[in-house]
Structure formats: structure tokens, C-alpha cells
Amino acid sequence: MQMPKTVGELRASQFGESLARNRSVKDELRENLISKLQRRDKIFPDIVGYDDTVIPGIVNSILSRHNFILLGLRGQAKSRILREITSLLDEWLPVIRGCEINDNPFAPLCKACRLLVQESGDQAPVAFVPRTSRYIEKLATPDVTIADLIGDVDPIKAARGGHLLSDDLTIHYGLLPRANRGVFAINELPDLAGKVQVGLFNIMQEGDVQIKGYPIRLPLDVMLLFSANPEDYTARGKIITPLKDRIGSEIATHYPTTVEEGMHITRQEAWLDRDGSSVAIPEFMSRVIEQIAFEARKDQRVDKRSGVSQRLPISLIENVVSNAERRRLLARETRTVPRISDVYAAQSAMTGKLELEYEGEQQGAGRVARDLIKAAVGTVFDGYCSHVDCSSIVSFFNDGGSLRLSEMDSSELCIQTLGRVNGLLEAAGKAGLADTRDLAATVSACELILEGLHARKKISRSEERGYSAAKQEPREYGFETLNRSRRVN
Fold first, then answer.
1. Cys bridge to 137: 148, 185, 285, 415, which one at CB 3.0-4.6 A?
2. In terms of domains, do 230 and 368 share one?
């Protein structure tokens, strides 16, 4: 389609009617959202787990033409959702060519564009801005100033044009005016200084602001979006009351409510396509990795106020695949299949993402990470192997057997070692974890069973000896313990 190049051509085109109505950006979002709802389209296809909780609140806010804030812990896709709002904008927006604030060619806001339209009339040039360029995002930090957001007087413009400093033509526009007729988002709003928040709500409500003492009228057409972490309200700053009062809706986000939702998000976001090489991640491995995040979120040693970001399982599965990839390259195998040992080798993707309480700090992040992996493996093991008889495996170790595996051993070598354990390969098949003809997947399944038995204290494992019989601990109130205590006394 041939795009109009002048105001006159624009007036006669399909864009002319909507521009003549001077439709606001909030009306534009509302109309496009209504069309999607009527077609029963999925509003945000890439957002998982929020269909019945967060997204209805966002839909209601847009239908109400509200500015809104997303409130939630880190790693809950707040920024991702804000950026997805642009999918509800028109594909193209006509503007006056060269305008810094995307002025409507039929109703220009800035003085330079008004003068241009007065001089050129229907010959004034126009351009088209894609929807992705109509989104501006700013991370709030304490050093952000009014000049950054609103603008400042540019003395060079004044000198070159021979203008007074109070003239609108001397303004160097900030981020908010440059988002005119679009969406402006501020992440971590409480970090913004109070005086800057005052200037923000003043221009969003009344449309006026003072720059260097000169009153400026800027009736901007902007959809304002915010995000904040509840911890920030007390730890780093606060949202001033007048600004909170002007934000139409407050929408709470949350972590995935089921392991399946978390697995979907992790698979969607993680980088698992390794240069065309074959990467096969068994389902139980994905469950173990996701379960680790769920275990961390309920562990008393992990700070609940900071939360456990969804980035933890995403980074972890990438590191797990990388460790398996390293083994594939060294063993010269054709497929990359992760094992439980790869999860332990990938702890570096976990420790930096856990904010620990005092008890966790005393034990150390490494110890906490290992405990979380062990707990997650135990949970997944119960889900797959609760109906499988593993008594022959336990008997092998109770009778003095031991087993030591290296994370870099090839699948063929591991199968030879695992085959010595009575009933282990058969248990992997009965649990439906792997086809015994697939050596790499079978090794991964056997490691899950061994580590699951260790998690349930049926067998022991140490760095020196590998897997062995479970340690027999005396019962605290057994007869032998009591008699020994009496003899000592």
C-alpha cells in the first residue's frame, strides 16, 4: 500500500477519518482490544499462567482507559507484560515528519509543527511510526530528574534560532513528551525521587509543568504504565500518595501456580537450541528443574519478601544443558541428554538468585542449593516411581554394593556400571522414564531413581564413595540408646 506523504494526501486516505476524530491513545487501545475480544483472540499469547488472574485486570483497566501499575516480586513478567501492550496499538501512526513528539498532522501540539502546518498547509510532510516505536520505557533510579522525563531549556537552540529562553522552541523534550500518542512505562516506580513523582502526576493530570521556572503547557496524549516490587515500598522508597491516587488500577502479579505452567514458561524463555545439535530433555528433568524453584519459594531459609525469580529455572536449565553438551563433546556422542548430575554441576545458576535468611546465610548458598535439588528430585521421584518396587536396588547396596558415576562418563560406560545394580534398569523401564534402547535417556532415568532413593533416605551418597547403603542412625529413644545412657551414668 502506498503511504501518504503530505497532509493533503493523508486527509484523503484511509487514515484521514480516524485522525480527524483526534482519537486518544487510550481510545485506540480500547477499540483494538474490543476487536480482539469479539474475535476471541488470545490477548497476550506469550504470557503464560495469567489468563484467569492478571490479564482480566489488565483488560478491565484498558477498557476503563486507566493508567495502571503492576505490583509483584521480581521475575513475574511485569516488564514483559508492559511491552506486550503495544500489540494493541494500530500498526502505523501518521505523524508530522521530523517531529520529536509524534504530533498529529491535523492537530499539532508543539510550536515548531504548528508553524510548519501554517506555512506549508496540505504540503506539510508526514511520516509513519510503527507500533513498536510508540513504546518508551524508563527504569526509575534515584538520579532521574525532571529534565530526563519532561525536558529542559536548550540554550544552544535559543542561541541558534534567536529565541527567548521562555520560548517553546527552545525546549529539549524529555522521554515523556517523546512518548506522545504512545505508551510510556516506568519500571520500579518507588525508586523515583518524590519531587520527580510530583512533576510526573502534574503533567499526566493537568498537562502543565514548569521548566527552569517557565510555565509550559503540554497536554500530552500518553498511556502511563508502571511496575513496582512490594519490597520497594519500605526498602528503597515509596510511591507518593497523590501519584497513587492518580493511577487508575493496581494489578498484582504472581509466580506460576503449577509446575506445568512453570515448565511452559521455562521452555519458552530458555535458550535450548544449541547450534542445530540434537538436545533431548526428558520430561522428568524439566520437572526437577522447575520443582527446584517451587521448593525454594517455600523454604524457610529463603527470603520470602524478595521471592525466587522465574529466571532461576530458566538460567538453570540452560546451564544443565551446557554441562550435558560439554559431556557430549568430550565423549563424542551425537545427542545432548541432561542428567541429575548435571543439575548439581549447574548450581552456579542458582546461588546468585537466592536471597537467604539468617539460617541460610549461616549454612551457605551452596548447601541450600544442594538441599533444594535433593528435595526437588525426591518430589519428582515420588511422582514417577511410587508404584515401582525398588527393594532389589536397595538390597544391592545393603548387601555391601556401591556405585560411583562421573558426570563426564559416556552413556555406554554408565550403562555398564548401572547394569551391576540389581533391578535398576528394569525399574527405569517400569516407571516409564525411558526406553531401555535409548542409552542416554536410560542413564538419566537411572540417576533420577538413585538420587530419589537417596532423597528418601533409602540409600546414601557421598562425594568419595558414591552411592552406598543408607547410614543406620540409632533411634533417639530406643532401648539401646537408653541402656547406653544408663551405663554411662
1. 185
2. no
